[in-house]
Structure formats: structure tokens, C-alpha cells
Fold this sequence. Notes:
The complex is a heterodimer. Chain A is 30% helix and 21% strand.
Amino acid sequence: MVKQKLIVIGNGMVGHHFLEQLAGRPEKALFDVTVFCAEPRPAYDRVHLSEYFAGRSADDLALGKVEQYREWGFELLLNDTAVSIDRENKTVTSASGVSKSYDRLLLATGSYPFVPPIPGHEHEKCFVYRTLEDLDAIRNASQGASIGVVVGGGLLGLEAANALKELGLEAHVVEFAPGLMSVQLDEGGSELLKNKIEDLGVTVHTSTATELIEEVDGRLRMQFKGERELITDLIVFSAGIRPEDKLAKSAGLQLGERGGIAIDESCRTSDENIFAIGECALYNNFIYGLVAPGYTMARTALAQLCGETSEVFTGADMSTKLKLLGVQVGSIGDAHGRAEGAAAITFVDEQSGIYKRMITDGEGKKLLGAVLVGDTGDYDQLLQYHLNDIELPEHPEQLILPAADGAAPALGAGALPATATICSCHNVSKGQIVDAVQGGCCSLAEVKDSTKASTGCGGCAALLKNVVDEELAALGVEVNNNICPHFAFTRQELFHIVQVEQIKTFPELLEKHGSGRGCELCKPAAASIFASLWNEHIHKKPHVGLQDTNDTFMANMQKNGTYSVVPRVAGGEITPDKLIVLGQVAKKYNLYTKITGGQRIDLFGARLEQLPEIWRELIDAGFETGHAYGKSLRTVKSCVGSTWCRFGVQDSVGMALEVENRYKGLRSPHKIKMAVSGCTRECAEAQSKDVGVIATENGWNLFVCGNGGMRPRHADLFATDLDDETLIKYIDRILMFYVRTADKLQRTSVWLENLEGGLDYLREVIIDDKLGICEELEAQMANIVGTYQCEWKTAIEDPEMLKRFRQFVNTDQADEKIVFVEERGQPRPAREEEIVKVAEPA
Amino acid sequence: MTQVAITHPQWQPICKRSDLVADSGVCALVGDPSLGNNRSIALFFLPDCEPELYALDNWDPFSKAGVIARGLVAEVDGQLTVASPLYKQHFRLSDGVCLEDESVKLNSYQVAFDGDTVCIAVDL
Ligand code: SRM
Ligand SMILES: Cc1cc2nc3c(=O)[nH]c(=O)nc-3n(C[C@H](O)[C@H](O)[C@H](O)COP(=O)(O)OP(=O)(O)OC[C@H]3O[C@@H](n4cnc5c(N)ncnc54)[C@H](O)[C@@H]3O)c2cc1C
Ligand code: SF4
Ligand code: FES
């Protein structure tokens, strides 16, 4: 059999999707595939491009892998742009001189950013925002820069502005039109969005036309129409996209009036052997600048190639939901109400910055479109009404009014027809998801894996979860979040049980609500819950056996079985006398000494039996335990602040001390780290902490749920310009709410990401007291603060507790297996081969 | 201690009941370092189990450190185990077999109370 030669030009998201689908079909055997890819790497997730700045690597974003293409047997030519198509001889020639013939040709060349021809736009500090290389260039330029401007206030422009902000720049958005996101939002919506974004510190200039860009003293000056100007260090153009149709044009394919490769329902161009899909294609005089319609075109083109001629593309939905700079925005269908006879219902809550607008048909029966700003909680439901033509309830306004004004008839996943599209990126219907669950997929992850739903833009995640949960429940499958085999409860449920029934010991908990004898999962979790609620000494008899070794011995075990000793150095502030004591103790016990990443000093290599003596000396000198071993507050990092620093606007050390001393000893689901910076330069790196506080002229900005470590997460701005008292009140509430509701070993970052309703919900609970629990949370925290004890101080005064710190219960000898050698003037554990030498005297 | 070579397991007192910690482990030394036949033993006391005492080698072959006595007692699929404090492998209390890798086994020893004294049968 002679195979058909298929050439694909462009390996972006849509081209890749096409090839991935082809690889999964038996017809793959019918084609010899060659792919021209202009970029240096195979397709990656452009939709999540901005996450590159938030720590995801090029590898994390990769969609296609070179090995994968090899496995599929597709020839992938990286870094090679196709430069001409000879339709007569059916060949494609590339920049590197490769020439290939084809039977069928697929164009998936995407689009390129439009740069308005403003004089000066080619300056080296002017960028676009489309590829990983663009982002690298922006990042480089941001080093040492302080201001960045985005030209263009559309969806992508705002995303770029957010990126500039995250790079630490003062961000501006310059928009020619009178409103932001004018494609998606109506006037009211864009006005509100503008206010919200300005509140977050991004300056928005609407109705502003740039006339000139020039370099002045090493910076860029933007001259606007009407005498205004702006000085900046770099500019990112995000003024729209243009279809990449040069190649098609030179090959004589039919284009649209304003560009775009014209295609018909079968995704064919004016040449029946050539297809075009994705952002380069023009259907019905429309370019679809989103990934989901591109994927639909890819499936259509593929079906057509495989002879399924009934499979056609007839347009796609352009609804979008996104979160820009922390502001939620959603747009569904005909957001501007352009259809004839359309009627609008608008809800505005200026105080909370919420704007919602529904467009219905003249009879108020069908939802034509909607705009949501500030709160997209209703998005999924409205989208389903729109996409599936579901008849609206009698009082459709209830769908967007706050619940208190009349119970909105919730459209559960159950109300959706089987044909309802749940995931538009991968065209997965509710029916397919139900089939997957019935076919044995028992978890969200398995359903995602098997149907690919929710693996594209991710916009359908919440709805998918609803459908899966509902289906699992219908099958009688319990969704299992249990803490371990001994307790059929989540950590949160267990917390409630312990609190309500006032349970104080593990045997009691096990007897009443568990089975078996417990394990290394439930025991420490229970111990942590008891400590959060009742705050008894972790060595109190019934709790001893529940702790992980580090908690048991109140020190961190090192690789050779010795321990590290980390006294608290609150806020990183330490007197010379105390420093001297640390040095003396380290010298006396021959401990390796190191400054930690948390602004304190770690003494390593203490033997079990030495711990109490060492701690006695430290406590006598005024130190207390640093809880380096516990799932509890670790450090509150500080910068020197207004006391010394010429820029400081508040006493950050003072605040760090107050905070550290308040929360030290609090047991929590995972460790908690905090920091306080004295001004916006942020030397204490507060935005990478669970709780971050940054001084302002008027008080403190509070950031929450940041994380360093394995998966860094930038903290979210929770509230601004707080006075001392409110700051502490909010932190009290947030921490206690976290302690109550988080899963075991869940940092605040992951907790927030899993919290339904996210940051907005957290604000409602903490600031507006939506659940009416704030008083209780504060009282609970007050109890913990009031019952604080230095665990080591208590331990060294209690002979029973001290008994545990014996290497051997039957002799005072030391463990001869612990061997140290010297390196750089300090001891370190001997390696295996070094121990052999020691053990074999010559 | 006698210097006679002992060729069969011999019961010997090792510590007191009050040295043990309920539902947890402690470490004891048997043998004589000067003779080079010493051994660290991890003793676990689970008051309401049958048997209530367990003895395993204290040496953790995975981490190469003497730390087993400081592990957490955990029930896994109905079996009583201790989880190594360093890399968390589970060793069955009854026979020392590692659940994650059955080719690895800690020595286990017979151990019992004689009144308030804990006695262990060890072949040194
Ligand atoms: C000592 C120290 C390294 C140093 O020499 O500087 C350290 C040492 C350990 N870290 Fe760390 N971390 C230390 C600062 C950090 C920091 C920096 C910071 O706090 O500013 C981070 C990133 C910030 C963060 O947590 O968000 C950090 C992120 C981690 C993580 C990853 C956490 C995550 O959410 O991804 C782990 C693993 C874990 O907790 O599961 C970890 C775990 C550990 C453990 C406990 C690993 C272990 O189980 O043995 C190390 C033992 C500590 C000991 O023996 O005393 N350590 N660790 C630092 C102690 C700071 C202190 O004064 O208490
Ligand atoms: C920052 C950002 C955020 C976005 N967010 C969203 C979102 O939230 N939701 C959403 O739906 N969409 C979003 N988009 C749009 C989405 O990324 C695009 O719709 C999608 O990538 C289009 O896929 P494509 O394959 O058609 O084009 P592309 O992904 O642009 O791929 C085209 C590829 O073809 C290559 N190429 C062009 N000409 C040639 C040639 N002659 N020879 C060889 N190769 C060639 C190009 O180099 C490129 O690699 C976002 C885009 C960006 C930049
Ligand atoms: S980074 Fe790894 S090796 Fe270094 S201290 Fe943290 S946990 Fe230990
Ligand atoms: S709709 Fe984009 S992933 Fe499902």
C-alpha cells in the first residue's frame, strides 16, 4: 500500500492536537507525516504561558515531546520554517532548504502579535508576548528595571500586565479604546474591571493613543496624543493578533479581506488538498483566537482526511472565564446584546465590585450571553444554559442575584442533558464522562486521564468535578478522602469530631470512631489536632507514642541518627550575648554550626542523650524551642525596617517579633512560615510565605498562602493598609480557619487552591464573617496563645519526660556507631567508607 | 560479664518494666563493646497486644543508622510494624521483615517479662 504524504506546517497547540489525535487513530498507518516547526521546541501550552514566570519550566509546559513524535513515526523538523508552497508540484520548501512533497497539506501556522506601527516600536526594549523566547527576553529586560508598560488592554494585555507586576515592575496598561477587554465586556463591565485593576496597583490609561516612542537617558519615553507622556523601562505590545497567512498568500490561497486563510466547513482552503486550522484559519469571516475552537477544527480536518465527510465545523463558542490580576472575569456568548430583540438584566454591587449582566432573547426564555466581573460563581451554570439552550426559569434574574435575594434555582450537573459539552477544549460531553465513570474510572484524576476533559484550558474543572462526583454518588461509590485505613474521615471531619466530643486521647478517638491500632498517618494527625485544640504538652503520657520522631525528641533527626538543635530567634533579632552562648554551647558539645535559610542558627550533631543538657544551657541563657521539628510556626523572617533602613516605613522587626511570639507553638496541619518587610522593596521575601506582611505608609498589607519549597507559589494580596490590631485579628482568623479545615500535611498554598471559592471566599469568611465563626476562631487562638509553654523548658524539668532521652535504657554508654570526621573545621557525619577506616585500627 | 563464648541463645535481663514506654520503643544495649559482641536492640511495649513485648535490631539497614527504636508503631494491613524514622520503611514487629522489601529483615529476638524485669534471648 502506498501511503499518502501528509505535511503539517506549524507545531503549535492546534497542530499538535491534530497530530496527537491522528496518532490515536488506526488511520495513522495510512499517512507518512512530516511536520515543520518554526520554534526550537515542539508544541507547548501557550494558554498557560504566563506560568513560566511563576516557576513552571519549558519542560512543564511542553505538550509534545521529541521522543513522542519519534514513537508515533512522525518526522518532526524543529527550528525549520516552511517558506514556500508549490501547489503545482505539490511540494513545500523550508528555510533550511528541505523540500518535501505532499498529497495533503495542513496549515496550522497560528498567529503573530500585532505591533502598531508607532515610530520607535522597534526599540530593543519593546517586546511581544507570544512565545517562551519572548518571555525570556522580557524577564532579562526586567532586571534592574522599575516600570513596564503594556500597550493593549485586552485579555492578553492584562495577562501581560500581571506578568510585569510579578516581575516586580510598576505596571501600566495603555489602551486605545475607552474600555478594557472591549471584545468581551460591555461598558459597565469594563469600567468596573478598570477600577478593580487600579485598586491592585496597575495604572490603566484608556482612550490613550501612543504617537511616539523614543529613548531618553537610557529609558523609554512614550508620547501620547494630547501632550501626555510616560517614562518607562520596557514596553510589551499586546494589541491583538494577526493570522500567520504569509505562506498561504504567496501560494495563492484565498484569504479574507483582512487576512486569515479562508476555510469551509470541512476546514479546506481554496485548494481542496490543503487544510487550515487554528488561529491562522478564517471561517465565516471570523478568526477564533482561542484554543478550544482550534481543537474542534483539528478534529474536523482529521475526520475529513479520514473520509468522514459528515464531520463539519460550523463555528464555535467564544465564552471565556479567567482570572486577571486576581479579578475574576467571565464572558458568555453575545455579551454585548447585539442580537435583535435581546433584553438585558444587570446587577451591580459597586461596594463589592461585582457586575453581572445577562442577555436573554425577547421572551426571556433563552440565554444569549452574559458578562460577569468580580464574581464568576455563576459562570458554569449560565454557560450551560447558553450552550444547551436550556429554558430559563421564570425569573431569570435570580440566576445572577445574590442568594439572599431569592433562592436561585441551582442547575446541578444532574440537570444537564447527556449531550451537554462539559469540556470544550477536548469536546467531551457529559455523556462521555458518565460512560467513563460507569466504565470504572473512580476518581477525577482517572476520568481526566481517560477522557482528557479538563486537560486543556482548565476552565471546565469545577463543572467536571461536579459531574464526576454526582455520577460516583449515583453509583453509590463513596469519594474517599479518608485520612488512613483506620479512620473513615477526612482530617477536617476528625477535627470536628474531636472538638465537638471533646476527645482528649488517641485510644478514646480510636475506640469511638476508628478501627485497628492506628498508623504513622493517623497518629501524628490526631496528635496535631489534639495540640491545636487542647494544647497539652506533646510528651504528656497519652500523646507520646503518637508523634513522629522529630516531635517525640523535639529535635530534627539527621541522617546518622543524631539531632539538630534550633532555638527560636524571633524575627532574626539576636543579642551579642545570646550569639556568644550559641557559640559556647556549639563548641562545648562539638556541634556543627550553620545559619539557616530561616534567619536562625542550627546546631547539628547532638546525640539523643545530649539534648536535655544542651537545652538546659540554652534555656538558662534565655532561649526557647524553635519548633524546627514540628508542624507548627517555624520562623517569622524580618528585614531591619524603619529603625535603621532609610526606606523603611514601619517597624518590621517589632511586628515580626509580635507575630512570632504570638503564634509560636501553634500546631497546624503543616509548617507555617511568615515574614514581615518594612517597605515595598520586600527584603524579607514576605510574598513567598504562608503569611506575609509588608509595611505601607498607612499600615500593613497582608499577603496569604505563599510557598517556597518544591512548588513555589506567590502569595495573594489579602487586604491592604491594615492597622496593627486588624492585622493580628485577620491572621488569627486565617490561621485558625486553616488549622480547622486543611487536609493533613497540606500547606496553606495548596489549601487555598483547593478551597472552593478561593481567595474571595476566604475574604468573605475572614473579613465579612460570612460563616459567623470569627469570634470562635479568635477565641480558639486566644486559648492557644494563652497556654503556650516552651516544650523544652517543661521537658527538662520533668524526670519522667527526660527518661526518654537515653540512648540506651540499660547503660550510659554512647552509641559507638555514631562517628564524625572533620571538614572545614567542623564535625560532620562520617560516610560509610570512612567509618570502615575508623573501625579497623591498623 | 563472663567471657565464656556462648553458643546458644541465652535469656538475660536487659532492663526494667519502668524503662519501657507504652506504645513506643526504647533502645537497650546487649553484649560488651570491649568484646566486640555488643548489639543495640529496639524494644517495643504494646500493653494491650498479644504478645505485648517485641525486640528487633536497632540498626536500620536502609539509613545505616541506629534509629529503629525511635520509629513510630504503625498498623499496616492488620500487621504491627515500626516505621523507620528516617525513610519510613515498615518492619514487622513479630519477625523484623520489611514490608516494602521482603528481602530485608531485621533480626528479631524473643523477649518477655520476668516480674518487673525485661528478659531477652540473645545469641551473642
Ligand atoms: C535547616 C534548613 C536548611 C538550612 O540549613 O538552611 C532546613 C532543613 C530542612 N528542611 Fe527546609 N530547611 C530550612 C529552610 C527552608 C526554607 C526557607 C525558609 O524557611 O525561608 C524552605 C522554603 C520555604 C517554604 O517552606 O515555603 C524550606 C522548604 C522545605 C520543604 C518543602 C516545603 C514545601 O512546601 O514544598 C521541606 C519538606 C517538607 O516540609 O515536606 C523541608 C524539610 C526540611 C527538613 C526538615 C528535611 C528533613 O525532614 O530532614 C530539613 C531538616 C531541618 C533540620 O534538621 O534542622 N524544607 N526549608 C532551614 C531551616 C530554617 C529554620 O530556621 O527553621
Ligand atoms: C499569553 C497567552 C495566553 C492565552 N490564553 C488563552 C486562554 O486562556 N484560552 C484560550 O483559549 N486561548 C488562549 N490563548 C490563545 C491560544 O494560545 C491560541 O489560541 C492557540 O495557541 C492557537 O494555536 P495554533 O496552533 O493555532 O497557533 P500557535 O500556538 O501560535 O502555533 C503556531 C505555530 O506555527 C509556527 N509557524 C508559523 N508559521 C510557520 C511556518 N511557516 N513554518 C513552520 N512553523 C510555522 C509558529 O512558530 C507556532 O509555533 C493565549 C495565548 C497567549 C499568547
Ligand atoms: S534543601 Fe533538601 S537537603 Fe537542603 S536542607 Fe532542605 S531538605 Fe535538606
Ligand atoms: S474547557 Fe478547556 S480544559 Fe475543558
